[in-house]
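## retry 2 of 3
previous attempt timed out at serialization; input unchanged, resubmitting
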Amino acid sequence: MTETTLQLGQASALPASPEAAKLDRVPNPHPDTDYLARFTVPEFTSLCPVTGQPDFAILVIDYVPGQWLVESKSLKLYMHSFRNHGAFHEDCTVAIGKRLADLLEPRYLRIGGYWYPRGGIPIDVFWQTGELPKNLWLPDQGVAPYRAR
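## retry succeeded, writing output
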């Protein structure tokens, strides 16, 4: 399957919600090679579903592609679509991981959501699917445990 209407290379409006966001995928030029791709979203923002106040996180997404790669512009727009979306930290983190896994069918995917404190408690959320291929280097996600990030 080849994607025919990518957002890349054309003007794209910010999606109104994560559900309305279109994630694009492109063929992996090295489907026979295990390698790790990482996306870091250092300024992720969503809204508390109870108070409507903003929540902030650093998201780190690591995946070992199969046949598909996520197109980075569409991923950026998808991430920005959470800015007016009300959901708990756990829901945002896991929903992003599941949506990417469904789209890409990767060999392995993990997401770490490092959320800034609300009410004095930081909530870090981790989700993964698949098995990490043997002999593949999986670096630390590089986000320090909470000490006034």
